[in-house]
Every structure is written in structure tokens, then in C-alpha cells.
Amino acid sequence: MAEAVLIDKNLSDVEIYKAAIPQIEYLLNPEEPIVSNLSNVSAVLKEAFTKISWVGFYLLKNNKLHLGPFQGKVACTTIAVGSGVCGASVQLGETIIVDDVDSFPGHIACDSNSKSEIVVPLIHDSSIHGVLDIDSHLPASFNLHDKMYLEMICRAITDKLNFNSLKDILK
């Protein structure tokens, strides 16, 4: 059974990450389905940061990203690799920070109020299995600290969970 996640929203972003990461690592349970684990990660991040308007995962299958667990408004269900920020992150195999989504070529606007975005690939054994996508209604909400800590979270996810089971989830 999950415990309540308590993080003081008045802390700096770095302090919030330092408080959230151990709680996320505790919640990651390889005995549970990936979807359950990713749901909890989304919930922790959405609850912890007031700057986040949408947070969720897209999972890769057949060169397309498919909507996974998320917190926020209804979202695009399928994104082609190479399209938008999520697809570009998969294509490049790296984290992308976008200060102004309107200036990103081919940005896919699921929420017209989104102003900035960060996308972190989920990499395991040199293969990309999806992305962590986070939006904000504020411009330039994400920086190198976010990149570093979100990459740590994604590494914890890919280190602890069995991504081979994704084939069964995305039928």
C-alpha cells in the first residue's frame, strides 16, 4: 500500500526533487505492472510541483509513442517518432527543454495553454522505451536542474522496472 507523499511546495525546485526522488524510488515496485509504477511517478511529480500543468509518459511501439499514465488534461494518444517535442526526443535520444513551445518547429499542442515543456527519454539497455513528458503553463519553466533530476528519475524507473513487459501492455 502506498504511503502519502508529503512535499512542501514552498521549497525550491532542487529541494523538491531531493525530497521527491527517494519517495519515487520507494514507490517503484518491480512486482507491480509498469503502468501502476508510472502512474505513481506521474502523481508524485504533479503533486510536488505547482509549475507542472501536465505530466505523463508516452511508451514506444512500432515507431510511435502511445499515451501512457499521466496527470492533467486529456492528451494526444499517439505521436510519431520525429514529431513534436516527444518524437524529437526519441529521434535524438536525449532530453529536450523548450522554453517557448510556440517557437518549437512542429510542436504538438494538446493543451493550448502550455508555454514550456521538457521531455526525457526512458532508456534501458541502449534502447528507448518511451519518454517522460512535462508541460507548464508558464514560459521557461524548466532548466538544467530539472533535466538532471528528471533524468535521475527516469534512470531509477528503467533500472528498477522490467520494460520487456511493455510488449504486453501495448498490444
Mean pLDDT: 92
- CATH level-two architecture: 2-Layer Sandwich
Q: Indicate the CATH class.
A: Alpha Beta
Instruction: Count up the domains.
Output: 1
Helix content: 25-40%
List SSEs in N-to-C order.
Answer: HHEEEHEEEHH
Largest sheet: 6 strands, antiparallel
CATH superfamily: GAF domain
Apparent shape: globular
**Order of strands, widest sheet:** 3-2-1-6-5-4
The total count of strands amounts to 6
Which class of secondary structure composition applies to the elements?
alpha+beta
The radius of gyration computed from the alpha-carbon positions, rounded to a whole number of angstroms, is: 15 Å
Task: Give the helices and strands, then pairings.
Elements: H1 13-27, H2 34-48, E1 54-61, E2 64-71, E3 78-80, H3 84-92, E4 96-98, E5 116-124, E6 127-136, H4 144-160, H5 166-169
Antiparallel strand pairs: 1-2, 1-6, 2-3, 4-5, 5-6
Folded structure, characterized:
This protein has a 6-stranded antiparallel beta sheet with strand order 3-2-1-6-5-4, with helices on both faces. The chain is built from 5 helices and 6 strands. By secondary structure, it is of the alpha+beta class. The model has no long low-confidence stretch (mean pLDDT 92). 36% of the residues are buried. The protein has helices at residues 13-27, 34-48, 84-92, 144-160, 166-169; strands at residues 54-61, 64-71, 78-80, 96-98, 116-124, 127-136.
What are its keywords?
171 residues, alpha+beta, Beta-Lactamase, six-stranded antiparallel sheet, 5 helices, 6 strands, 35% helix, globular
Concise overview:
The chain has 171 residues and is an alpha+beta fold.
